[in-house]
């Protein structure tokens, strides 16, 4: 089993999956989703903290697992009330900024935010800090980092592992395409950088196309079709997030190229796992979104209580293939909330 760092197994979850969005890898139709979360009561007469957890978007399996982790942390801590709210699209930067401004006006105790844009979110998060609100970033941070703690996968290293796996799948030779998601989003930038840098170590692999999916399934499908048309000898695709991987897989499937064009995706949505089982996708880089949500809330409360927090928490990632996907430890990562 190939691992990156220490990809910790997901915590057991009992009754924390509330307000789940779609399970298809496509966003829900609503522009936002609000969940009052855990109605915590103060422990030993102490303060109950109201923490706003703001993903990059709602309605994706990945983000709903982050949500479940955040709710589980609130339940374990006992003195936290979670407010979960996000836009319907990871590209809605202004929408996320507006939500954060609303939470500042509501005087929440802490913000746990996955930044839609590394630069654009800096001013509003600094405004929150000036208002006395603790700020933790998860999954996607800011540049410069303004949060007291950043809880996420080491995306550069994870994407480098994708390049290593691509080299293995292609036998060290072939044309490769890269499908990042949103330019300007730190996570997308880091995965693009990590993949390109590592791919450069393999002289037989040639990056012939880079197209952004905008974190949209239909856009990913379209750009993959364009890439396949322009590069008929394409041997491999690295799609750097869930909608990108699903769109790429569908394009390859429609052309009857399963197994001929090797696909490496990111995350472990149910349809991605199904595509891995069927052989349309050959490998997935699987994060631990449950742990990202859980640790994000834990760090926020530690910060509120004046305890030392870690500036950077790496939650790990794992390369999952059809050969290792049934290993017990891998199953915990693929199904952190249990099989449905």
Report the CATH C-level class of the largest domain: Alpha Beta
Rounded radius of gyration (Å): 19 Å
Helix/sheet category: alpha/beta
Please give the count of helices: 10
Strand content: 15-25%
What would you call the shape? elongated
- What is the H/E order? EEHEHEHEEHEHEHEHEHEHEEH
Strand tally, please? 13
User: What's the number of structural domains?
Assistant: 2
- CATH A-level architecture of the largest domain: 3-Layer(aba) Sandwich
- The CATH homologous superfamily of the largest domain is called Response regulator
Binned, the helix content reads 25-40%
Average pLDDT score: 89
Q: Quote the CATH topology of the largest domain.
A: Rossmann fold
Reported for the largest beta sheet, the result is: 7 strands, mixed
Give the strand order of the largest sheet, numbering strands 1, 2, ... along the chain.
1-13-11-10-9-7-8
Which residue ranges are poorly predicted, with pLDDT under 50 across at least 5 consecutive positions?
Answer: 1-44
Note the gap between the termini.
25 Å
Subcellular location: Cell envelope
Keywords: Signal
Protein name: Ribose transport system substrate-binding protein
GO molecular function: carbohydrate binding
Quick tags:
340 residues; alpha/beta; Rossmann fold; 2 domains; 7-stranded mixed β-sheet; 6-stranded parallel β-sheet; 13 strands; 18% strand; elongated
């Amino acid at each position: 089993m190939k691992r990156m760092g220490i990809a910790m197994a997901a915590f057991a979850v009992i009754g924390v999956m509330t307000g789940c969005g779609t399970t298809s890898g496509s966003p829900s139709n609503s522009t936002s989703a609000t969940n009052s979360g855990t109605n915590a009561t103060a422990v030993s007469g102490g303060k109950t903290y109201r923490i706003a957890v703001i993903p990059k978007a709602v309605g994706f399996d990945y983000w709903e697992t982050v949500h479940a982790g955040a709710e589980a942390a609130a339940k374990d801590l006992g003195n936290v009330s979670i407010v979960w709210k996000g836009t319907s699209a990871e590209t809605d930067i202004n929408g996320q900024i507006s939500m954060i401004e609303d939470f500042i006006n509501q005087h929440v105790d802490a913000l746990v935010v996955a930044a839609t844009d590394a630069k654009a979110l800096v001013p509003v998060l600094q405004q929150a800090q000036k208002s006395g609100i603790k700020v933790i970033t998860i999954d996607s941070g800011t540049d410069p980092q303004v949060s007291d703690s950043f809880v996420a996968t080491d995306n550069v290293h994870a994407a480098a592992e994708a390049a290593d796996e691509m080299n293995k799948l292609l036998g060290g030779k072939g044309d490769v395409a890269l499908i990042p998601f949103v330019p300007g989003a730190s996570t997308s930038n880091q995965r693009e950088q990590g993949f390109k840098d590592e791919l450069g170590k393999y002289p037989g692999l040639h990056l012939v196309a880079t197209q952004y999916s905008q974190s949209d399934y239909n856009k990913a499908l379209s750009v993959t079709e364009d890439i396949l048309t322009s590069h008929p000898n394409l041997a491999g695709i690295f799609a750097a997030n869930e909608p990108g991987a699903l769109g790429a897989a569908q394009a390859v499937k429609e052309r009857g190229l399963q197994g001929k064009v090797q696909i490496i995706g990111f995350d472990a949505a149910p349809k991605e796992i199904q595509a891995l089982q069927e052989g349309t996708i050959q490998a997935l880089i699987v994060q631990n979104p449950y742990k990202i949500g859980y640790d994000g809330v834990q760090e926020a409360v530690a910060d509120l209580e004046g305890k030392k927090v870690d500036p950077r928490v790496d939650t790990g990632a794992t390369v999952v293939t059809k050969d290792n996907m049934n290993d017990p430890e891998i199953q915990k990562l693929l199904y952190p909330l249990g099989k449905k």
